[in-house]
Write a structure and sequence with these properties.
This protein is an alpha/beta fold. The protein has one domain: Rossmann fold (3-Layer(aba) Sandwich). Helix content is 43%, strand content 16%. The chain has 10 helices and 8 strands. Strands 1-2-4-3-5-6-7-8 form an 8-stranded mixed β-sheet, with helices on both faces. A hairpin with a 7-residue loop joins strand 1 and strand 2. Helix 2 packs parallel to helix 10 and helix 8 runs parallel beside helix 9. The N and C termini lie far apart (60 Å).
Length: 302
């Protein structure tokens, strides 16, 4: 009798996995992944419900800090964005199509130099660049990281999964330094990334208590002015909270917002910028607003 029960439980477990995938999607991990000029990379990819049972093609969302997106056991602080649940909520609202989510893990201590936008670093005044060099602890390689995402990684994803490959079906989202990296991808590769979510972007770039606010504002304003161009159907989301590290971001975000207005981008259609009162700089805060972010950023076109 005991053996029969064990066999039955094993059968039920085998049946339960596909059922869960049909209801909540499934995760796949890939590691290690060599990338030219970068630390070894690692991916967690979420396939939405119905992917395995059908033949439809899906838009793709690339997200930084992939270890903090789905499972607490992989996260730095036992807190996650719950990106899969946010996507399911956005899809349930009827405004968003299901997306494949490609979570790219951060490379540990190399995170800063992989996420700091290289073209902004190159434009930084000497004193700020020296602070960036100290924070990075090595060469800034975000240009290589962007080239890898937009090139070899995207090619592999589009070959390995049923994706829709165009600009309007390719989004990128991150927070803090990952927010800066998402802006970088959006500005430097507009032919690849049609949508970007720059969440709690770390505009000070280094310790906000020691930076030259005026120099930073001028740097970011010039950076956006030189690269923004016309919306052409693209869409970008900005936000920040008002507590902990996010308390430093408002002056810089206001400069960026003003630049979008000056460039003719229409708020609510082409871009959004929100302040979440009391929200801190951490994963639970980002998880709380991620369904709203997805609902606007990834909404189906009229």
């Amino acid at each position: 009798m005991g053996r029969a029960i064990l066999m039955l439980l094993a059968v039920l477990a085998c049946l339960a996995a596909p059922l869960r995938a049909q209801q909540t999607g499934r995760l796949i991990e890939y590691q290690p992944i060599p990338a030219a000029g970068l630390p070894e990379q690692r991916l967690t990819i979420w396939l939405p419900p119905g992917y395995d049972a059908g033949n439809a093609r899906y838009p793709v969302l690339y997200m930084h800090d992939g270890h903090n997106l789905f499972e607490p056991k992989n996260s730095n602080f036992n807190k996650i964005w719950a990106a899969d649940k946010a996507m399911l909520a956005a899809v349930a609202s009827g405004s968003v199509e299901p997306h494949i989510i490609v979570g790219i893990w951060a490379p540990g201590r190399d995170r800063y130099r992989q996420y700091l936008p290289r073209s902004a670093y190159d434009a930084a005044p000497p004193a700020l660049k020296a602070q960036m060099d100290a924070a990075g602890g090595g060469q800034i390689v975000s240009d290589r990281y962007l080239a890898w995402i937009a090139g070899p990684l995207k090619t592999w994803v589009d070959t390995s999964f049923r994706t829709r490959t165009g600009r309007d079906d390719t989004a990128i989202v991150g927070s803090s330094m990952g927010g800066l990296m998402s802006c970088y991808a959006f500005l430097e590769r507009p032919e690849v990334f049609g949508r970007a979510g720059c969440v709690s972007s770390h505009w000070p770039a280094v310790d906000p208590r020691t930076t030259d606010e005026g120099a930073l504002k001028a740097m970011w304003d010039g950076w956006f002015a030189a690269r923004l161009g016309q919306p052409d159907g693209r869409r970008v989301w900005f936000d920040h909270g008002t507590a902990t590290l996010d308390a430093y971001y408002a002056p810089y975000q206001q400069v960026v917002d003003a630049r979008l207005v000056a460039a003719g981008w229409v708020k609510g259609r082409d871009w959004e910028s929100k302040v979440f009162e009391g929200a801190e700089h951490e994963e639970n805060a980002w998880a709380a607003r991620l369904p709203e972010i997805f609902g606007w950023l990834l909404a189906k076109r009229p």
